[in-house]
Design goal:
This protein is of the alpha+beta class. The protein has four helices and five strands, in the order βααβββαβα. Helix 3 (97-112) links the parallel strand 4 and strand 5 (116-119). The relative contact order is 0.15. The model has no long low-confidence stretch (mean pLDDT 91).
């Protein structure tokens, strides 16, 4: 079966938002507000400095996506490409869609002069961890911390 990866377009916003909603539920049992999610996805297209989405297609049908955002590293004087919001539809899993998207990200990162590719993964998601390790990624020595703010603090 033919598998391709392409840059996402505005016409993909509905798929991406729906897949992000499914991913949040599958991985964290979190329910996301569909309106906020749709605005958040569209905001990436509105301001390319935020990043970009890639879409995997099998036989011309979208089967997965991911988001890449940027993090400046002053230590390395370059950007990291952060992979986020990864989702592959259930029937396409274990069929190479994520590998193809990862390889496309790595190629774009090299071409852009990035210093590396990073992602974070839920601590209990051992299947994803095995996938990432199988691609040659290594577990980092950092823990992640956050301070979450209420959605009411952000513009609509």
């Amino acid at each position: 079966m033919s598998l391709t990866v392409r840059a996402a377009e505005r016409g993909d916003i509905q798929h991406i938002a729906r897949w992000n909603e499914a991913m949040a539920w599958e991985t964290e049992q979190k329910r996301l507000d569909p309106d906020v999610l749709a605005r958040g996805v569209a905001a990436v297209f509105d301001e390319p400095r935020r990043g970009f989405y890639l879409v995997a297609e099998r036989e011309g049908e979208p089967v997965g996506c991911l988001l890449v955002t940027y993090e400046w590293s002053d230590w390395r004087c370059g950007d990291f490409f952060w992979i986020q919001s990864v989702y592959v539809v259930e029937q396409a899993r274990r069929g190479g869609a994520f590998r193809a998207m990862y390889e496309a990200v790595a190629q774009r990162a090299r071409e852009a002069g990035a210093v590396g590719v990073r992602l974070y993964v839920e601590t209990e998601n051992e299947r994803a961890q095995r996938t990432y390790a199988g691609l040659g990624m290594e577990r980092c020595h950092y823990f992640m911390y956050e301070a979450a703010f209420q959605a009411s603090n952000r513009p609509a």
